[in-house]
């Protein structure tokens, strides 16, 4: 079973920034597209950003221009830089292989709370 460990979340004021990181304990990492997802209270998990093995990125309209996804194939990590955070960004953030069902399991996620 793949272990996915997300970190970097926290409490931040509107307009602030956070940098999330996800480490994957997999033998092969570089060939896969990766994604960040989030799940807000009472809502379904939604796709936030993707990055292909070649580094092409795509974003949900709600985060475009504010979030940046990147990857480090040597460290086997995927990062989400989040700027100009809004209260509606409050959620638990998860990473996984893209597309669904990813690696078949999820990490514990990292909580992001945007509030004044």
Description:
This protein is an all-beta fold and 116 residues long. It has no helices and ten strands. The protein has strands spanning 4-7, 10-12, 18-24, 33-39, 46-51, 57-59, 67-72, 77-82, 91-98, 110-114. The strands form two sheets. A six-stranded mixed β-sheet has the order 2-10-9-4-5-6, with no helix packed on it. It starts with a strand and ends with a strand.
Q: Calculate Rg over CA atoms.
A: 13 Å
Instruction: Output the helix-strand order.
Output: EEEEEEEEEE
Give the fraction of residues assigned to helices. Answer: under 10%
In which order are the strands of the major sheet placed? 2-10-9-4-5-6
Mean pLDDT: 96
Quaternary state of the chains: single chain
Which structural class do you get from the secondary structure elements? Answer: mainly beta
β content, as a range? over 45%
Specify the overall morphology. globular
- Low confidence ranges: none
The N- to C-terminal Cα distance equals 39 Å
Count, helices: 0
Largest sheet: 6 strands, mixed
Count all strands and give the number. Answer: 10
